[in-house]
Amino acid sequence: EPEVTQTPSHQVTQMGQEVILRCVPISNHLYFYWYRQILGQKVEFLVSFYNNEISEKSEIFDDQFSVERPDGSNFTLKIRSTKLEDSAMYFCASTPTETYEQYFGPGTRLTVT
Amino acid sequence: KQEVTQIPAALSVPEGENLVLNCSFTDSAIYNLQWFRQDPGKGLTSLLLIQSSQREQTSGRLNASLDKSSGRSTLYIAASQPGDSATYLCAVSSNTGKLIFGQGTTLQVKP
After folding, report:
1. What is the b/e burial string over A38-65, where b = at least 16 CB atoms within 10 angstroms of the residue's CB?
2. Which of A77, A79, B2, B75 is disulfide-compatible with B21, CB 3.0–4.6 A?
3. How far B16 CA lies from chain A's nearest CA (Å)?
């Protein structure tokens, strides 16, 4: 069964460094999402992406964040200058339509020290 | 602003019991509602999706209902097993596909 994959599974970085989190959505899906979950808190929406552009973003998704679909398979989240409060689990999700079931990847645990 | 609340926050039951998890949302203008399972430190596994026009969905021992007008959904788990122990998340979707999550119900099923 097709699944969403994410790399790396765990990333440790120093405050102020740039990180890129990678996702490979399910191949025939058209809508892509990033969410994050700070330890002990709710899963929060960050951004949605369709047709090579951002379709919606939350207030969390400020100028430090960017997303890209550099080729036909990868979907990346870049954090330009990480802060301690960016430490969280980051989930990528994809779906064939915006009203269909979303399929989540296993997540990348980001630790900022 | 859409808010999703799940009650109870935690639940511990003996194996074999039937149980109900509750989810409520403040804005009834949703496109669908999705129930997920999350094991500790892991990703989210989709369990059931209910479209806004539907009243319920079933998958094996799981049954989810949706009452859009009252802003409520329930997840019914029949004949619970220790392997059902996990956190169950409810999420509602707007027409843009964005999911708004509840804080989850952590279920422990004791053998």
Report:
1. eeeebbbbbbbbbeeeebbbbeebeeeb
2. B75
3. 29
